[in-house]
Amino acid sequence: MVQRRMPRPSELRPLLRPAPFVWDADERRLRRAASIADLRTIARRRTPRAVFDYVDGAADGELSLQRARRAYARVEFTPTVLRDVSETDTGREILGRRASLPLAFAPTGFTRMMHHSGEPAVASVAQEFDIPYTLSTMGTTTIEDVAAAAPRARKWFQLYLWRDRAPAKDLVQRAAAAGYDTMMLTVDTPVGGARLRDIRNGLTIPPALTLRTFLDGARHPHWWFNMLTTEPLNFASLDATYGSVEDMINRVFDPALTIDDVAWLRETWPGKLVIKGIQSVDDAVRVVDAGADAVLLSNHGGRQLDRAPVPLELVEPTVQALGDRAEVLIDTGVTHGADVLAAVALGARAALVGRAYLYGLMAGGRLGVEKAVTILAAEIVRTLQLIGVNSVDDLRPSHVRLRPKE
Predict the structure, then answer these.
(1) Distance CA 151, CA 388 (A)
(2) What domains lie within the chain, and their CATH numbers?
(3) Whether the Cβ atoms of residue 377 and residue 103 lie closer than 8 Å to each other
(4) Is residue 72 part of an annotated ligand binding site?
(5) pLDDT of residue 209
(6) How does pLDDT run across 365-386, given as a tens digit for each residue?
(7) Which DSSP category does 398 fall into?
(8) Which residue out of 116, 220, 300, 336 is catalytically annotated?
(9) Dihedrals φ, ψ of 94, to 5°?
(10) Which of 197, 236, 320, 335 makes the best surface tag, with the fewest CB within 10 Å?
C-alpha cells in the first residue's frame, strides 16, 4: 500500500515559483506563443474578421495554399548523427549580401490595416535581425518613410506595372534614391484573383463602417480605436482609390505585361532584379534571359490562380535549369523554420515569409513581428542540429526528400 504524508513547507518552497508579472499587455500575450500557429490564433482574436481573413485567406477554394502547405508536410529529412552541432551558422548570402537567416520578409499590401504600426515596424525588425525587407507597391507607408524608419535595413521594393509606365518609373527612381538595392517585379497579377473571403466579408480599402463592421468592431475596439486615431489608411504609392482588392487590381494594373517589360525594367533599374510569381521552369529561363538576377517561385500565397503549381515542387527542376545564372527564391506556405531549410536543401537560396510575420504583427505589433522571427530562427537552429548540419550553406538535396503524395 502507498503511504501518504503531508509535505513539509521546505519541500513546497522550491515548487512555488510564480512567473513575474509582465506589465506590457502585448508582451504578456506573446509569451504564450511557441509557434507561428500560436501567433495566428492570437491574431484571429485580436483583429476584425475581415482583416484577419484578408491575411489568412486565398483565392477561390484556397486549393493552391492548401497544396503548398501539404507539400511542406511531405518533407522528410535524412539526418546524420554523431556530429558536433554545438555551433551553427544560420547566415546566408542572398543576392550578393549576407543575411543572418536564409529568409526575407515578403511584400504585403495594406500592412497598416493589420496593425497601425505598419511597414515601419516590420522594416525595423528586419533591420534588427539583419534580413531583407520588401516594401509593396500596395503598401501604406512611403518608400522614403520606410527608409527613414530602418536606415540600416536591407530594403527591397516590390513593383506592379501600371498601364501608364510613368508612375512605375517614378517609383523605381525613388527607390534607388532612398537606398533600396533590389527591385522585385510581380508578374502573376494580370487580373485580380477571386478572394472569396474578402467578397463575403465586404472588405474594402479603407474598411467601411457598415453594420457588420460596426458589430465586429464592438468585439475589437482596440483595433478600431488605433485605426481611427492614427493617420488615415491609404496607399502610399497609388492614387487614392476605393473598393475591393480585386477591383483595384483590375482598374490599375496592366494585363498586357510581357517579357519586353522585364527587359525595360532591367535597363531602368541599376540594382538587383527579382521576378516574382514564376510558376514554370520555362518562364524562369525566359526572365533570366531577359536580365533577372533571381526568380521567386510563388503562386502569390495562393491568392491569384487557384490550382496553381506548388512552388516547393518547382525548386529542384528550376535550379537545374538555371544553374549559376540566377538565384532561386521561394514563398507560399512557409510557416516553420524547417520549411525554410527544406527549400534551401532542395536548392533555393532563401525563402520569403508574409503571413508568418503578419500574424505576429496582428498579434502584438512590432513585438509580434519580432516574436515571429525569433520563433523561425529557433526552429532553423534546432532543425539544423537535429539534421546533423552546422551551417545552412552545407545543406544539400541529400538531406531532404518529399514523401509520395497520399
Answers:
(1) 37
(2) 26-402 (3.20.20.70)
(3) no
(4) no
(5) 57
(6) 999 999 999 999 999 999 999 9
(7) G
(8) 300
(9) -125, 115
(10) 320
> Does the annotation list 347 as a binding residue?
no
Task: Return the closest-CA partner of residue 353 out of 145, 185, 168, 106.
Answer: 106
Active site residue 300: yes
The pLDDT tens digits of the residues spanning 189-239 come to 988 888 999 888 888 766 665 667 667 767 888 888 888 899 888 888 876
Amino acid letter for position 154: R
Q: What does 296-328 look like in DSSP terms, one character per residue?
A: EE--GGGTSSTTPPPHHHHHHHHHHHHTTSSEE
Is 66 a known ligand-binding residue? Answer: no
Which of 73-86 are b and which e, b meaning 16 or more Cβ less than 10 Å from the residue's Cβ?
ebbebeeeeeeebe
The pTM of the full predicted model, rounded to 2 decimals, is: 0.93
**Residue 295: all three cell numbers together:** 526568380
- 277 annotated to bind ligand: no
5 is in an annotated binding site: no
All three cell numbers of 390: 552546422
CA distance 353 to 372: 10
Calpha distance 315→295 (Å, rounded): 10
